[in-house]
C-alpha cells in the first residue's frame, strides 16, 4: 500500500527508504544530528521483525552491522562526522572483506567535536576516511524525496557490488520536512548480493575475475565462508604474495570503475548553451537552482551540474561539460573539497572558482548570483 | 571423563589441509586451544553448517583460517561486537569468538564487557598468554607486574586485569578458566561454555614461549616448561574454596567460576518485537 502526502524529515525518509530496500538490522550510537534515524529504527525494526541495537560505541555499531550482514540480513548504521571518524576502521574493513552495508552520515560543522549545524565537510572523509585506497560509493541527496530513494539505491548498490555505501546527508536536510509520497513495495526495485553458483565445497568468498564482484554466501548455509580484512587470495586465505595484493586491490577498484555507467548518477539543468556552470550537490544544489533563475532574469546563461553519486566522481561527463563552457563555479559548504575533483577533471581547460561557506549556515542564492556575476 | 576424538578424525573433518602448516611457534598455546574447540564441537555433534567462528587479531586468531567452517576474521578487538550483530540477526547460529588477551582486554575491552552485560548468546574464548605475541612481545593488560617485554624492558609496573573477575562484574552468566596443560578439562570447559545459553566466557592460560617465556624465565622458558609451571601453579575451584587468600596468591584457579541462567539477549529481544508488533508496551 502506498502512503501519499506524508510530511517527513530527511532522517525519517532515509530510514523509510532503507526499510523499503529491505534493511532489517540497525545498530547505532546516539549522536546529533543523526539520532532521529536511530529513534525511527528503534520503533520500525522490531515492528518489522528486524533488530535495532544501540551499541556501546560507534565502532561497535559498524562492527555489529558487518556481523549481521554476514548472516544475510541487510544492515545499516547512521552517524555524523565524529562518529564516522570512528567508523572509518569498520568501513575500510568492509571494503576489503566486501561486506555490504549502508552508512548514513548526517554531516555537521567543523573539525573535532565541531557543532551540530549543517555542512558538507565530510565529502573527502567519505572517500578517504579509512586507511589505504578505498573504493566506496557515496550518494548525496538534495531533497526529502531523494533521501528516501537514495537510501534504497544505496542499499541496492551495496548489495550488488559488495561494497559499503555512504549516504551523505546533512543536519539541515536531516531535520527539514517536505511532502513525500511513499510508493508501494511493488514499485520498488530491491537488489540482493550475488549468490554462489557453485557447490558449497567449491565455494570461495573472493572468487572473481579482475573486474568482478565475487558471489557472497551467507553464514549458516554450509559454504564455509571465509571473510577477512587482511590481504587475501580468492579463497580468503591470508596471503603474503605480492601478486595477490595487486590482484585484490585492483579488483576492488575495478568492480566499481568498470561499472560507472550503472553506478554514476547526476542531474543537469540547462547545461546546453550555458556560459557558466555551477557544480553543486546536496542541499546547496537547491540554492544553485534558485540562483540560475535569478541569473536568467538578468540575461545570464547558467547551468547546473549536480552529482547525485559523489563517489565515484562523475569525471567523464564533467570533463565534456568543462570543454564547452566559459567557467565553472563550485558551491559547497566546506573549504573546498569537491572543487579539487572538478579541477582535476577539467585539467585547467576552464576557469574554476569556488564559493564556500563553513559557518553552519546555508549558501544563499544571492551569494551564488554575486559570484557568477564576478566570473562574468 | 568424556572421550577424546582421534586427531585424524578432527583433521579430516574440519581442516583445510592445504592451509597447513600453521604459523605458530613450537610450544605455542594457540594450537591446543583450537584443538579443544574442535574436540568440543565434534563431541557435541554440532552441525558444522551452523557453527561460525569469529576471530580477532593476534596469533591465536589465526586458528580459524585453517578450518572448513564459516569464519569471520575481524578487526582488532571488535569480535564480540561483530558476533553480537551476527547473533541478533541469526540466532540459529552457534557463534564462537576466539581472541587473545591484547585483543579482548585492551583494544576490545569495551565490546567484551558490553557483550557480557547483554548476555548475548555467544561463546568467547580468550587465550591469555600475558603478551602481544604477534607484534613481537609487548605487554598487555594481563601481563603480570615486573614482567619484561619489548615495551617494558625495565620491568612492568602496570597492574594487570583479572579477566574472569572483570567478566563477573560485567554481568557474564558463565565464566570459566582453564589452562593449556589441563587439556582434558579444557575440552569439557569449552563444551560447557558452548552449551551455556547466554554469554559464556572462557579464559585459557596459554604459553607464549617466544615472546613471554624467553624473557620471563620464572614461569618457564620453553613451551613444555611453561606447561609444567601451569601444572604446578593451578588449583581447581573446588580446592580453592578451602584455601586461604594468602595461599591462593599467584595461583591459577581453574574450572567453572560462575554459571547462572539469565535471559539470553537475542531471545529476550523477541519480546521487544512482540511488543512493537502489538503496537505498545502492554
Ligand atoms: S609469538 Fe607466542 S603466541 Fe605467537 S605463535 Fe609464537 S608462541 Fe604463539
What are the key terms here?
heterodimer, A: Rossmann fold, Rossmann fold, eight-stranded mixed sheet, five-stranded mixed sheet, 21% strand, globular, B: 282 residues, two-stranded antiparallel ribbon, binds iron/sulfur cluster
| CATH superfamily placement of chain B | Thiamin diphosphate (ThDP)-binding fold, Pyr/PP domains
Structural classification of chain B: alpha/beta
Small-molecule binders = iron/sulfur cluster
Estimate nothing, just give the exact number of structural domains of chain B. Answer: 1
Instruction: List segments of chain A where confidence is low: pLDDT < 50 over at least 5 consecutive residues.
Output: none
Describe this structure in words.
The complex is a heterodimer of chains A (376) and B (282). Chain A has 376 residues and is an alpha/beta fold. Chain A has 2 domains: 6-187, Thiamin diphosphate (ThDP)-binding fold, Pyr/PP domains (Rossmann fold, 3-Layer(aba) Sandwich); 267-375, Rossmann fold (3-Layer(aba) Sandwich), CATH 3.40.50.920. Chain A is 39% helix and 21% strand. Chain A has helices at 10-20, 35-47, 58-70, 81-97, 123-128, 144-161, 171-175, 242-257, 260-263, 284-297, 315-324, 338-346, 365-375; strands at 3-9, 25-28, 51-54, 75-79, 101-109, 115-118, 137-139, 164-170, 177-182, 226-228, 266-269, 276-279, 302-307, 309-311, 327-332, 352-356. In chain A, strands 2, 3, 4, 5, 6, 7, 8 and 14 form an 8-stranded mixed sheet that branches. In chain A, strands 11-13-12-15-16 form a 5-stranded mixed sheet, with helices on both faces. A two-stranded antiparallel sheet of chain A has the order 1-9. In chain A, helix 3 runs parallel beside helix 4, helix 10 (284-297) packs across helix 13 and helix 11 packs across helix 12. The N and C termini of chain A lie far apart (51 Å). In chain B, helix 2 (30-43) packs across helix 7 (183-195) and helix 3 runs parallel beside helix 5 (109-118). Chain B contains 12 helices and 10 strands. In chain B, 39% of the residues lie in helices and 17% in strands. In chain B, the strands form 2 sheets. In chain B, strands 2-1-3-4-8-7-10-9 form an 8-stranded mixed sheet, sandwiched between helices. At the A-B interface, helix 2, helix 3, helix 4 and strand 10 of A face strand 2, helix 3, helix 5 and helix 12 of B. The complex binds iron/sulfur cluster (SF4). Iron/sulfur cluster (SF4) is lined by residues 24-25, 28, 30, 59, 129, 133-134, 208-211 of chain B.
Amino acid at each position: 500500500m502506498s502512503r501519499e502526502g506524508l510530511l517527513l524529515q530527511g532522517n525519517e525518509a532515509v530510514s523509510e527508504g532503507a526499510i523499503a530496500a529491505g534493511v532489517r538490522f540497525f545498530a547505532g550510537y546516539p549522536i546529533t544530528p543523526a539520532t532521529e534515524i536511530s529513534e525511527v529504527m528503534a520503533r520500525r525494526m522490531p515492528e518489522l521483525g528486524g533488530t535495532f541495537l544501540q551499541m556501546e560505541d560507534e565502532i561497535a555499531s559498524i562492527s555489529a552491522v558487518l556481523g549481521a550482514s554476514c548472516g544475510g540480513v541487510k544492515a545499516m548504521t547512521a552517524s555524523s562526522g565524529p562518529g564516522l571518524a570512528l567508523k572509518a576502521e569498520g568501513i575500510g574493513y568492509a571494503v576489503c572483506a566486501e561486506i555490504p552495508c549502508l552508512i548514513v552520515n548526517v554531516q555537521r560543522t567543523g573539525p573535532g567535536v565541531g557543532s551540530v549545524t549543517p555542512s558538507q565537510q565530510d565529502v573527502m572523509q567519505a572517500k578517504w576516511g579509512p586507511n589505504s585506497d578505498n573504493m566506496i560509493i557515496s550518494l548525496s541527496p538534495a531533497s526529502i524525496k531523494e533521501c528516501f530513494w537514495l537510501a534504497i539505491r544505496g542499499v541496492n548498490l551495496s548489495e550488488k557490488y559488495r561494497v559499503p555505501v555512504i549516504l551523505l546527508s546533512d543536519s539541515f536536510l536531516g531535520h527539514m520536512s517536505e511532502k513525500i509520497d511513499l510508493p508501494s513495495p511493488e514499485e520498488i526495485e530491491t537488489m540482493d548480493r550475488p549468490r554462489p553458483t557453485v557447490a558449497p565445497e567449491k565455494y570461495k568468498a573472493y572468487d572473481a575475475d579482475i573486474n568482478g564482484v565475487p558471489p557472497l554466501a551467507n553464514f549458516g548455509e554450509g559454504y564455509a565462508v571465509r571473510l577477512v580484512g587482511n590481504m587475501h587470495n580468492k579463497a580468503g586465505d591470508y596471503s603474503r604474495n605480492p601478486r595477490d595484493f595487486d590482484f585484490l586491490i585492483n579488483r576492488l577498484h575495478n568492480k566499481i570503475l568498470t561499472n560507472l555507467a550503472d553506478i554514476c548518477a547526476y542531474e543537469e539543468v540547462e547545461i546546453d548553451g550555458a556560459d557558466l556552470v555551477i557544480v553543486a550537490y546536496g542541499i546547496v544544489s537547491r540554492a544553485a537552482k534558485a540562483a540560475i533563475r535569478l541569473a536568467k532574469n538578468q540575461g545570464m546563461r547558467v547551468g547546473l551540474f549536480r552529482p547525485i553519486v559523489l563517489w565515484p566522481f562523475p569525471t567523464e561527463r564533467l570533463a565534456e561539460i568543462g570543454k564547452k563552457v566559459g567557467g565553472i563555479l563550485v558551491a559547497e559548504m566546506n573549504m573546498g573539497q569537491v572543487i579539487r575533483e572538478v579541477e582535476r577533471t577539467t585539467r585547467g581547460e576552464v576557469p574554476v572558482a569556488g564559493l564556500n561557506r563553513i559557518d553552519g549556515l546555508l549558501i544563499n542564492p544571492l551569494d551564488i548570483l554575486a559570484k557568477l556575476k564576478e566570473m562574468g | 571423563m568424556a572421550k577424546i576424538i582421534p586427531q585424524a578424525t578432527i583433521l579430516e573433518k574440519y581442516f583445510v589441509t592445504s592451509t597447513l602448516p600453521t604459523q605458530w611457534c613450537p610450544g605455542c598455546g594457540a594450537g591446543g586451544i583450537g584443538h579443544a574447540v574442535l574436540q568440543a564441537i565434534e563431541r557435541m555433534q554440532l552441525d558444522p553448517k551452523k557453527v561460525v567462528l569469529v576471530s580477532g587479531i593476534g596469533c591465536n586468531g589465526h586458528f580459524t583460517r585453517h578450518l572448513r567452517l564459516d569464519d569471520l576474521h575481524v578487526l582488532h578487538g571488535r569480535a564480540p561486537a561483530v558476533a553480537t550483530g551476527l547473533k541478533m540477526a541469526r540466532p540459529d547460529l552457534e557463534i564462537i569468538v576466539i581472541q587473545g588477551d591484547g585483543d579482548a582486554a585492551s583494544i576490545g575491552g569495551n565490546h567484551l564487557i558490553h557483550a557480557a552485560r547483554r548476555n548475548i548468546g555467544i561463546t568467547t574464548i580468550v587465550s591469555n598468554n600475558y603478551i602481544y605475541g604477534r607484534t613481537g612481545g609487548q605487554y598487555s593488560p594481563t601481563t603480570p607486574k615486573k614482567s619484561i617485554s619489548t615495551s617494558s624492558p625495565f620491568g612492568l609496573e602496570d597492574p594487570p586485569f583479572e579477566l574472569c573477575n572483570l567478566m563477573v562484574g560485567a554481568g557474564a552468566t558463565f565464566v570459566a578458566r582453564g589452562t593449556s596443560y589441563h587439556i582434558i578439562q579444557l575440552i569439557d570447559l569449552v563444551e560447557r561454555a558452548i552449551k551455556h545459553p547466554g554469554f559464556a566466557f572462557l579464559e585459557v592460560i596459554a604459553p607464549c614461549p617466544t615472546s613471554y617465556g624467553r624473557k620471563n624465565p620464572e614461569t618457564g622458558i620453553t613451551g613444555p616448561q611453561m606447561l609444567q609451571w601451569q601444572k604446578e601453579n593451578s588449583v581447581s575451584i573446588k580446592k580453592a574454596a578451602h584455601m586461604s587468600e594468602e595461599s591462593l596468591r599467584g595461583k591459577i584457579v581453574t574450572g567453572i567460576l560462575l554459571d547462572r541462567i539469565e535471559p539470553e539477549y537475542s531471545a529476550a529481544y523477541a519480546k521487544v518485537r512482540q511488543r512493537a508488533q502489538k503496537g505498545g508496551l502492554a
